[in-house]
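Deliverable D5.2: sample structural annotation.
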Amino acid sequence: MSMAFLEMRHVSKRFGKVTANEDVNLSVEKGEIHALLGENGAGKSTLMNILYGLYKPTSGQVYMNGELLDIKDPSDAIAKGIGMVHQHFMLIPTLSVIENVVLGLKSNKTVLDLKASAKEFAAMADSYGMPVDPWAKVSALSVGQQQRVEILKALFRKANLLILDEPTAVLTPQEVTALFDVIRRLTEEGLTIIIISHKMHEILAVCHRCTVLRQGRVAATLPVSEIRGAGQLAELMVGQPIKLEMDKQPVKAGGEVLRVQSLGYRSKDGVDKLKEITFTVRAGEIVSICGVDGNGQSELIRCVTGLLRATSGASTLHGEDITHASTRSILDKGVSHIPEDRQSMGMLADMSINENLILTSFRSQPFSRRGMLNMGWIKKRNEQLIETFNVRTPDIYERAGNLSGGNQQKFVVGRELDRSPSLLIAVHPDRGLDIGATKFIQQRLLEERDRGVAVLLVSTELDEILELSDRIVVLSHGEVMGIVDQSDATRERLGLMMAGVREAEAVSG
């Protein structure tokens, strides 16, 4: 029986009592674009880290071209023709492109000929339709250009199997299209590509076959041409039918709740992270902040919630100036905040779920009376809350740090929605959740909006922004490129603005 180009047979990986992969079989043909699909925690990255030599499998074998491989570490994987582009790039910003490319390469010469390497690299980059100046500093390149450098670096090192981990996570739609063109070109040249992703529409657009992982096991492997649509993939990922369409009612916006006026923030090292940011959020509407991650979203939300001190401009809540108010006083004015990092900003890992659920409310009635916590009422309320949000835990007294990331996210979201805010600030509210939990949270955000809450949503997922938003504020390098009504928004228009094209130019373009 002939073997596929790559075969991973009966691969398992355990970390103590936690099983990340269980008896996984993966078969990839030469010249194929093969998707590895699954939600966060499904075991995708662990499986590919085994293939790349970052982890040793607990059991199982890896074959390439019919040869049994013993991959000791990443350098060994590279020597065997396996390259990997990680979701968070491994480039050194202060070095040039060519210095990053040759770093760690062995040479038969005493002194590496950097000029000759740069010439060879530039010719290779041009031949693949990805021209890059080999002498440019990595810090001067866009995110999309840095990703191309990572791909070219792997090709320069003679990779014939390329693993791309969430390759579109930090790209604009236009950069995604360009990347897919490159991927197709590479496979025409004989390269084999595995794409790790959770974005179903992208899998359907570019891949030949798809392997779906669910809770560390293979749920299915099938040709993309046989997939009926995103709904089928979603069902394979979570094991049950999922309603992908949202019940979104026409917007009935009320009075202004939040106003951000000419807000600016300069970091301690003198960099302007926010420049003259102006927008409003009204009762009963969802305003989304859209942009490639790292373009000022974090600083904006921290300034609005009192975690950073704005350098200029102002924020008002129901007409009251909160620019320099403390975080505690802002939250006490009816603001709920689902933070960007649940572990460092949304919970205390060493405290119980029960204690975490009252962190922002324990001072007020009916949580406490005359300085004493109302423990009976708190227990009953919190048990109802974790049931509503399907937080999987033995009980409410479990240490919060023992829960999976997705369950931590669900109880943080549940706590903030339970506070009945007038302004809800939701930053990546469904990050780390499976598709079923994601749709549940998104529907809850719409319900908050429909009962008159002003919702400020930060997301890097364009599908989510297009589906949930009433108005969209597009940020690029800390500036507002424009504010677009949802009815006028398209992926292409938003993508141009995310890349730094102002609204008028994006429309005319």
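Annotation notes: The two ends are 54 Å apart (CA to CA). The mean pLDDT is 88.
The annotation will be released with the project's public dataset once the embargo ends.
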